[in-house]
Amino acid sequence: MELLMKILIPVGVFAALGLVLGVMLAIASRLFAVHVDERVPEVLECLPGANCGGCGYSGCAALAEAIVSGRAAPTACTVGGGACAKAIGEVMGIEVGEVVRMRAQVMCSGTAEFAQKKYVYAGAADCIAAANLGGGDKLCPNGCIGLGTCVSKCPFGAISVVDGVAVVNYRKCEGCGVCVAACPKQLIALIPYDSRHWVGCKSVDKGALVRSYCDVGCIGCQLCSKVCEADAIAVENFCASIDYARCTGCDKCVEKCPRKIIWSARKQGRGLVISREELENN
Amino acid sequence: MSFTDVLLLMFGAVLVENFIFSKFYGCCPFLGVSEKPATALGMGMAVTFVMTISSAATWAVYYLILEPLGLQYLKTIAFILIIAALVQLIEMFLRRFVPALYAALGIYLPLITTNCAVLGAALVNIQKGYGFGASVAYGFAAALGFTLAIVIFAGVRVRLQFADPPRAFRGFPLTLIAAGLLAMAFSGFAGIRF
Question: For residue A258, what is the enclosing H or E element?
Fold first, then answer.
């Protein structure tokens, strides 16, 4: 009998304890219930769930809430792209236009071989720290510092530094734009995913000055804008830039450029990463 | 226990017998949520909040239910139950009435449900035979010690991000070494005895 009580009392006490706590929690969940718009979890379902922060919100859950409350557009998620925006539009009951998928592109070609340095940097391995020290170790004030602040920020592991210049592996790039905000030189731009061409330079110095410190800097010679039949290239501040709405991808500017800095994704070499395999081999 | 004794108890719990550096309780959140000082502070505040309340609740359950029935040997499992239910309750309460605090602590609260530091504080209170007031004070002070440790460590880790260590040390190994050095620094407080 005594043995039986020794077993029954603890079992009873814990059953009662569990029951009391359970009932308490059940009551509390009713009492403290918070009304949540049921579209929030539905929108969250549509989002990619990478929590990259490219939209400017702390994560996918925060963006879902912002979309439902109308503070953010249904197309705010660049990573999810068109399919995601369409699904969100269906949940929200609004028409969503076409979304162009973007990818990041580093607008610098000045690898260690081509761009001259003004001093030997031996500080913290971070572009922002280096940029604070006389604008970085390259003579070019607009060149890639190559210490990989964007590499560490990229939520998708798509960026690597090859020969002192950051390179985006666009098979991995989701176009979230986190690197665009991270680069202290504002060297990274989002361009349409399918565009094959880009100008690998953002220098705004005069041609003669650019020649003095970089073998692959844009000198603003305007040969590309003259040869372009689609009138897609503009040269401003001694630097060419491509209007992707007009570019037909004809490759004429690539052949004409005397500095070989208009890149075509079909072209390989010079450390440009085209495929994932190439990135892994480096 | 006089007021001075309680103060000394709290001082000891924060520095001399720091939960992380001398007892090795709560190492999981200490290593997991210490990448940024702001999130570390959030975690520390959540632990402080829960540990203070759970110290009071577990003390009451132990002395009002378990001891009269002679069930002291079941205290560990009872405390786990109490703490888990309490954290759930606090989470719901905050979500309803203090949304700002919920937004700050929300994601950390469920993590604390299974945090050994919270259970550790409850068990130490019983082991040392503290009264109700001293138990709450000890729980609060131990959590303050935890917060101090995790915030200091987050500061160290921010610096570590800019370090360029050999490949083998990168990431977690270096983090553990830094934690060890910090624990050694805190062992200096062990000389303070009252």
Answer: none
Q: Which residues of A touch B98 (CB under 8 A)?
A: none
With contact defined as beta carbons under 8 Å apart, do A184 and A133 qualify?
no
Q: Which residue has the higher pLDDT, A260 or B149?
A: B149
- pTM here is 0.64
Give per-residue pLDDT as tens, A134-174.
888 999 999 999 998 999 888 888 898 888 889 888 778 88
For helices A2-31 and B75-97, angle between their N-to-C axes, nearest 10 degrees: 10
Domain co-membership, A135 together with A244: yes
CB A61 within 8 A of CB A44: yes
| Cα separations in angstroms, A40 against A37, A92, B91 | 6, 10, 20
> What DSSP assignment string belongs to A135-146?
T-SBSSTTS---
Model pLDDT, residue B155: 94
Find, among B66, B63, B80, B78, the residue nearest to B118 by Cα: B80
pLDDT, mean over chain B: 87
* Domain at A204, CATH number: 3.30.70.20
Determine the distance in angstroms separating the CA of A115 from the nearest CA of chain B, rounded to an integer. 24
Find, in chain A, the residue whose alpha carbon is nearest to that of B96. A32
Q: State the Cα–Cα distance between residues B34 and B37, nearest whole angstrom.
A: 7
Instruction: Indicate the residue of B71, B88, B162 with minimum beta-carbon distance to A25.
Output: B88
Q: A259 — phi, psi (to 5°)?
A: -95, -5
List of residues 6+ apart from A68 with CB closer than 8 A: A37, A39, A40, A43, A92
Distance from CA of B129 to the nearest CA of A (A): 23
d(CA A93, nearest CA chain B) in Å: 29
pLDDT in tens, A50-86: 888 778 787 888 888 888 888 888 888 888 877 888 8
- ipTM of predicted complex: 0.74
AA identity, residue B81:
L
Which of A129, A134, A113, A144 is closest to A270 using CA atoms? A113
The count of other CB atoms within 10 Å of the CB of residue A240 is 24
Cross-chain CB nearest to B93 (options A32, A124, A152): A32
**Is A224 among the domain residues?**
yes
Cα(A170)–Cα(B137) distance, integer angstroms: 56
Find the domain containing A87 and state its range: 39-92
Are A76 and A212 members of one domain? no
Kindly state whether residue A15 falls inside one of the protein's structural domains: no
Q: Which of B69, B163, B164 sits opposite A13 (nearest CB)?
A: B69
CA atoms within 13 A on the CB side of B112: 31
